[in-house]
């Protein structure tokens, strides 16, 4: 059963989508331009510098959380889709499901096996043979 997104998830997705638009980038660039133009008016004072530093720090701090939330959801969705492709593919190794949850050393062992398969396939190609098929991992 599919459940609706939480309020925070909907907000984070909408905010990340909105902030990624060219118009928002242009608005941010305009704010910086206005700040630069006002430098001489405020004699490049500490307060003038503090305004832009505080504003950009707060926006950056909040955006990190919004972007991370969106990125986490996207990554999880991709992993589930890849798991489904492995599960549904005849001859695929189901041990590859949910690899992102393994510890680093276990993941490195799987990676090493696939690197060895790739190296063997390249040797076959160099000999003029084909590199297709489903060798055991």
Report on this structure.
Keywords: Membrane, Transmembrane, Transmembrane helix. Pfam families: Iron_permease. The protein has four helices and no strands. With about 140 residues, it is mainly α. The chain folds into two domains: about 5-90; about 100-135.
Please tag this protein with its features:
transmembrane; 137 residues; single chain; transmembrane helix; mainly alpha; Iron_permease_Fet4
Helical proportion? 55-70%
Poorly predicted residue ranges: none
**Average pLDDT rating:** 90
Order of helices and strands: HHHH
Tally the beta strands.
Answer: 0
Number of domains: 2
Category by helix and strand content: mainly alpha
The fraction of residues in strands falls at: under 5%
Radius of gyration equals 25 Å
Principal-axes shape call:
elongated
Termini gap: 34 Å
- Main pleated sheet: none
Number of helices: 4
């Amino acid at each position: 059963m599919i459940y609706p997104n939480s309020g925070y998830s909907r907000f984070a997705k909408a905010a990340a989508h909105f902030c990624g638009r060219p118009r928002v980038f242009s608005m941010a660039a305009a704010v910086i331009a206005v700040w630069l133009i006002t430098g001489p008016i405020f004699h490049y004072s500490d307060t003038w510098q503090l305004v832009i530093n505080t504003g950009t720090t707060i926006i950056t701090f909040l955006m990190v959380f919004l972007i991370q939330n969106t990125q986490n959801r996207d990554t999880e969705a991709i992993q589930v889709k890849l798991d489904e492709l492995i599960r549904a593919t005849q001859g695929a190794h189901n041990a590859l499901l949910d690899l992102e949850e393994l510890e680093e050393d276990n993941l490195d062992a799987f990676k090493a096996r696939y690197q060895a398969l790739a190296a063997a396939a390249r040797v076959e190609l160099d000999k003029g043979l084909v590199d297709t098929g489903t060798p055991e991992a």
